[in-house]
Specification:
Helices cover 32% and strands 25% of the residues. The chain is of the alpha/beta class and 271 residues long. Bound molecules: adenosine-5'-triphosphate.
Amino acid sequence: MSCAGDISMREPDATPQAGRRTRAPFIRIEAVHKAFAARQGGELMVLDSIDLDIAENEFVSLIGRSGCGKTTLLNIIAGLDAATSGRIAIGERPVTGPGQGQGVVFQQHALFPWLTALGNVSFGFRKAGLPREERRERSLELLRLVGLEAAANKYPREMSGGMQQRVSIARALALDPQILLMDEPFGALDELTRIELQQELLRIWQARRKTVVFVTHSIDEALMLSDRIVLLAPNPGRIQRIFEVPMPRPRSRTEPAFNALYDEIWSELSS
Ligand SMILES: Nc1ncnc2c1ncn2[C@@H]1O[C@H](COP(=O)(O)OP(=O)(O)OP(=O)(O)O)[C@@H](O)[C@H]1O
């Protein structure tokens, strides 16, 4: 099992607290609006003028009150939903659907119950047409990466929530996506498992150099993981403020800088 000590320091970015960055953008979100048809007629404006650049290998968290549009924005980046107007590009390519280098992990593990851990991870490889033996080898390697090699033949019902979420992460990594989009992936887990999986994720992020967009309700989790924290305000969802997290990793919850930033985000969130 990994430990937080595996995580080396990364240079903090001294960029202003804005959606634009000095590093070359990898995910570019420009003037994104999203409206849904409201049940009582008319439209419900959910996202309003979202502008955000995310750099390659950056770890960005989205936080904000329930209903402020975090999942909607993540789904649009994933290509699972379309913006009403505006543009999203990954590299130079506009996002027109899933499968452009985005791997998605949801809160509910959404594993196939009739497949083992190995079967769930190798599913993506099967779709990509890899030969059987190579599928098996690569899937086992990913299960090893998430510390679950010994559970390769277990079915989801035989695994704890934390184990299932590890399989979900391994499955999302199967096609080696450049971007990992995670929607409250640890929200349903107990505190200890959650902390353990945060450390796992940081290790994987470090080892595999992914760009991560991570939705969470937890300021603590966002502070432990992220390079930047994007706070969305509701009705309609818009960027209220972006916080740089300059502390080197591994971070400690007892650091004064951690607690000062926690208080600042909390006060902004509750204002
Ligand atoms: N398919 C849909 N049709 C209509 N309204 C929707 C649809 N999906 C989301 N909404 C509405 O859009 C708003 C934003 O929802 P979204 O799930 O993105 O928020 P969120 O910030 O992720 O919330 P939570 O923190 O509770 O998960 C909510 O008011 C929600 O009811």
